[in-house]
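so my prof wants the structure for this chain in the tokens format not the other one, which i didnt know existed until like an hour ago. anyway here's the sequence
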Amino acid sequence: MSVQLFGRRQIADIVEIPERSGTAFKLAKGNTLVVIDPRGEQVADLLAFNAADVDEVISSGRTLDYAERIYLTQGDKLYSNRSNVMLDIVEDSVGRHDFLLTPCSYDTFRHFYPGLEPHRGCFGNLAEALAPYDIGPDRIPVAFNCFMNVPVDGNTGRLSVLPPISKAGDHIALRAEMDLIIGLTACSAPASNGGSFKPIQYRIEASAGPDLAP
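here's what i got, hopefully its the right format
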């Protein structure tokens, strides 16, 4: 992966995750992960584990508790199961992401889409991508759902899964507050993505250091 220098930031090339697939990679403390929806209306499931101790993992419960709301955006932090900040949302061009629904899987396909061919979904893609880091399927929690659009009825609490409001080129940027292992997908569930499947892109931005020219 090549890197270009812009001011005091190092900008890596954009990496594309093909439709209905996933990947995993390390993200160093202080680096910023930019998740991009290149075509619009496409969800990305994001997981984070402490690179030094994978028993510390991103937590929907802790994050929503501390944020005191269900839709997260710039200025919000994503917490671990130990109440440590893992990621800080530093930019967001969409403003609608959530922590409400579990990664899609063979089981969720059978439940919600009985007329479709079951797909291993984000859960299976994350399990395969995280296996080289010795992270097994039982360690996969609820993901942070980038670009997901899940309105909640204020009276009944009923959830609705609608197409994302993200447009082509929209992004969310998250700065790592510890060394992390990241899992990231291009979601496979029809309802979550407006009935079509598209790629997700990402890039990593790193501080260039104080001795480099502005």
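also thought this was worth mentioning. The first helix runs from residue 60 to 67.
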